[in-house]
Write a structure and sequence with these properties.
alpha+beta; Phosphorylase Kinase, domain 1; 3 domains; disordered N terminus; transmembrane helix; membrane
Length: 313
C-alpha cells in the first residue's frame, strides 16, 4: 500500500467515526414522510369538498335567473325595442322540434316548440312541447305524484300522450308535452335540461301606449304575428306579416296613419304599412271608430324585428 492509499484509508475511517448512527435519521425521515402523506390526504380531502361545494353551487346557480347587464349584446339587440324576459332555456328537445310561439305577460312567460314538419300554427293542435315560468300549472286531469328535477322537489301528471312536470327553482316552472311518444320520459328529460338564461329575451316587434305584445308566434321568419291582448280590453292590437281575413264582414274606408285603411264590422280598424298589417279591435265592440283609429295611430313599430328564433330549435 502506498502513501496515498494509506491517507485515503485513514480519512475514510475518521469520517466513519464522526458519522452518526443512521437509525435516528431514518426514523425522522419516516415521520416526515408520514406527515407529508397526512398533509397530502388533508389537502386532497379539502379539495374534493371544495369541488362538491362548487358543483352544488353551480347546480343552484344554473336555476337562478340574473337579469341581463345593459352592456350585454343580448340586452341591446335592437336599441329602443321593447323586450321581455323569457328567463329560461331548455337545452334538450326531441329531434326535429322548432320554436314557434312566445308569450310574456305580468312576469309570466311561455314558449312552445312543434315538429319542424308540422303545419302552420300547429301549437295547440298537434304534437308540442311547452315551457312556462312564473305560475303554477293547472294540471291535465290526472293525479299529481312526486318526482325530482335535478335534485329539486317536483310533481308530475301523466295522461295518455300528455305529461306535465312542475318544479320550483327561482320561479315556478313547468314543462308540458302533448301528443308525443313516451310523454313521461320526454317531459322529464326536457325539464332536466332547463337552465336560467339571461340571454333568452322576448323582443317585441311593436309597442302601443307603453305596452308590448303578449304573444309572438310564426310559421317562418317571414310569416309571423304579434298581439297585445290586455284580457278584458279595451283594445286588442295585432301586427302581422299576414293579411287579415275579413270574411264577409262589411268594411268602410278610413284614414289611419296617413293612409287608407278600413273599419271592419264596426269594431276593427286595419291598415297596411309596408309589408305589415296593423289591426286594432275594441272589446267590447262599442267604441267609436275614431277611438280605434287613435289606437292604431299610437302603434310604434320596431326598426328591426327579431324573427330569427322562429322555426329554429
Amino acid at each position: 500500500m502506498n502513501d496515498t492509499e494509506q491517507l485515503i484509508k485513514e480519512a475514510l475511517g475518521q469520517l466513519a467515526e464522526r458519522t452518526p448512527h443512521p437509525g435516528p435519521t431514518l426514523n425522522a425521515l419516516r415521520r416526515k414522510r408520514k406527515r407529508q402523506r397526512n398533509n397530502i390526504f388533508l389537502i386532497a380531502t379539502a379539495g374534493m369538498a371544495a369541488v362538491v361545494v362548487l358543483i352544488f353551487a353551480g347546480v343552484v346557480a344554473s336555476d337562478r335567473y340574473t337579469p341581463p347587464n345593459p352592456n350585454d349584446a343580448a340586452a341591446a339587440l335592437v336599441p329602443g325595442n321593447a323586450t321581455g324576459a323569457l328567463k329560461y332555456q331548455p337545452h334538450w328537445l326531441p329531434e326535429g322540434y322548432v320554436e314557434t310561439f312566445r308569450s310574456v305577460h305580468d312576469g309570466k312567460a311561455l314558449r312552445a316548440w312543434v315538429p319542424v314538419s308540422a303545419p302552420a300554427d300547429a301549437y295547440g293542435g298537434g304534437p308540442s312541447i311547452a315551457l312556462s315560468s312564473g305560475e303554477a300549472h293547472p294540471g291535465i286531469s290526472a293525479k299529481w305524484r312526486d318526482v325530482t328535477v335535478r335534485g329539486l322537489k317536483a310533481r308530475m301528471q301523466v295522461s295518455g300522450e300528455r305529461a306535465v312536470v312542475e318544479w320550483k327553482a327561482q320561479d315556478t316552472l313547468s314543462v308540458l308535452v302533448d301528443r308525443v311518444t313516451d310523454p313521461e320520459t320526454t317531459a322529464r328529460r326536457v325539464a332536466d335540461s332547463v337552465r336560467a338564461d339571461s340571454n333568452a329575451i322576448f323582443e317585441a316587434p311593436f309597442k302601443v301606449r307603453g305596452n308590448q305584445p303578449t304573444v309572438f308566434s310564426g310559421t317562418s321568419p317571414v310569416a309571423w304575428s304579434a298581439t297585445f291582448s290586455p284580457g278584458r280590453g279595451p283594445f286588442e292590437v295585432t301586427v302581422s306579416k299576414r293579411k287579415p281575413e275579413f270574411g264577409s264582414a262589411p268594411t268602410t274606408p278610413v284614414t289611419v296613419r296617413g293612409k287608407q285603411g278600413v273599419v271592419v264590422g264596426g269594431a276593427t280598424v286595419a291598415v297596411q304599412e309596408g309589408d305589415l298589417w296593423i289591426t286594432a279591435t275594441s272589446h267590447p265592440a262599442d267604441k267609436p271608430d275614431d277611438e280605434i283609429v287613435a289606437v292604431v295611430n299610437d302603434v310604434e313599430l320596431a326598426s328591426n324585428v327579431d324573427t330569427g328564433w322562429i322555426r329554429t330549435k
